[in-house]
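In this supplementary section we document a worked example of the pipeline. Step one takes a protein sequence of length 435 as its only input; no multiple sequence alignment statistics are reported here. Step two produces a three-dimensional model, which step three serialises into C-alpha cells for compact storage. The input and output of this example are shown verbatim.
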Amino acid sequence: MVDSEVMAATLSENGFRIVSQPEHAHIILINTCAFILPAKEESIEAILRLAEWKKTGEGMCAYLVVVGCLPQRYGKILEAEMPEVDLFLGTSEIPHIARHLERLVYAKTIIENPANITTPVFLMNANHSRLLSTPFYSAYLKIAEGCSNLCSYCVIPSIRGKTRSRPIDDIMKEAENLTDKGVKEIIIIAQDTTAYGTDLKGKPTLEKLLKELASIDKIAWIRLLYAYPRSLNSSLLQTIADEEKICSYIDIPVQHIDDNILAAMNRRGGSKSIKKTIATARAMIPLVALRTSVIVGFPGESRKEFNKLLAFIQESRFDHLGVFTYSREEGTAAADLPAQVSEKTKERRKILLIEAQASISFEINQNLIGSFQSVLVEGKSDMPNFPFVGRCSRQSPDIDGVTYINGRNLATGSLITCRITSANEYDLFSENINV
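The serialised model returned by step three reads:
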C-alpha cells in the first residue's frame, strides 16, 4: 500500500492523472505481491483479467504495467509468459515510475526489454510524496525495508533485500507531514519493526524512535505491528507502557511454538523465550492487546507438534490471531525439507485453530463489557441501532474487528469515549458517553 501511495504521488506530480475506475485508465498499473502462493495467484488473476480488458478494448487501456514483488521474483519468466504486459518493474523502480511510463507512452519504438529488474535497494524517505489511500485520520509509516532474519520458509529477503532502516529525523519529518494532513493514528510497519536501527550508524533503537514520535502533538495513537518476539525486550515494552500515545497493542508473529519446528523455520528463540516475552508484556502492560500469527502444516509438523501449537493458543489467549497454511515456496530452504504436509491436513488444522480462537476472542470481548474505551470514529455503519462504526485502541484496521457506536452526529476521524455494552467473537458494541 505504501509503495502504491508513493507511485501515485510521483505520477500525479509528473503530469499523470490518477482515476478511480480501471475502465477510465489509459495506463493500468498493477502493484503485486509474491510472498506466498495465494498472493501470487491473486496477482496473476488480476493481471490476466486486466490484460483481457486491454485486448478486448472493454475500457480505455492502452498500456498494462506490472510492478513490485511478482516481477522482482520472477522477472524474465513473466516477460516470456505474459506478452500482453507492456512493462514489468521490480521494487527498486518504484521511485522512477513516472520516467518508465513516460518512456513507455512516448517512445518511438517498441520497448525490446520490458522487464526492468534490478537489485532491491529502494528505501523511501520523507522526500517521497504519498497519495494516501487510507482514511485521512490513519496512515502507515514504513520505518525500514527488507529483512535479514532468513526464516527458512520466507522469500522476503530475496525480494526486498536486507534490512535497511530510515534515520529517525527522516521518519519524524514524514510523520509531521502526515499529521499536517490530519492523520491521528500512525501505524508503524516494516518487515521486522524490532530490527529497526541495527544497520544504522549509532544503532538508534525502536524505543528511541517511538519516544520521538510520541512527542509530536497532533499524533493521538501510535500502533506497532510486526514485532519479532526475540527482539521485544523490556526496554521497548517499558516505552510502550510509559507513553500514553502508544497503543497498548502489539503484533508479535510467533509462527509456531514447537522447538523443533521453530528450529526448522530458522526462527531465533525457542518456546521458552516466546512464552517469557508474552508473560513480560502482560506484566509490564496490564491491559495490552496481543496479536500473533502462526503457520500450520510446516514440513515435519505431525499431529503431536500441531497439538502443542493448539494448546499454546488455548493457554496464551491472544486477543487476535492470524492463521496461515504453510506455502511451499521455491528458492527457500523449507521447500526441500522432507515430511511435507498435505493441503487437506493444513486446511483442517487451520480451521481447528480458528475455531479455538473464536471462543477465546468471544470470552475476551465479553469481559470488556462495561469498560470504557477510546474509540476512533470511522464513519457511518449499516446497523440501525449502532449508526456509527470505529475502532478502539485494541483494534488495528483491516485485520481486527471494529467497534459499533450508538451515538449521534459523530464526526469521522474524531476520538470519543465509549462504554462497551455488548460483544461477539470479533466486534464490540458501544454507546458514546461524550454527550
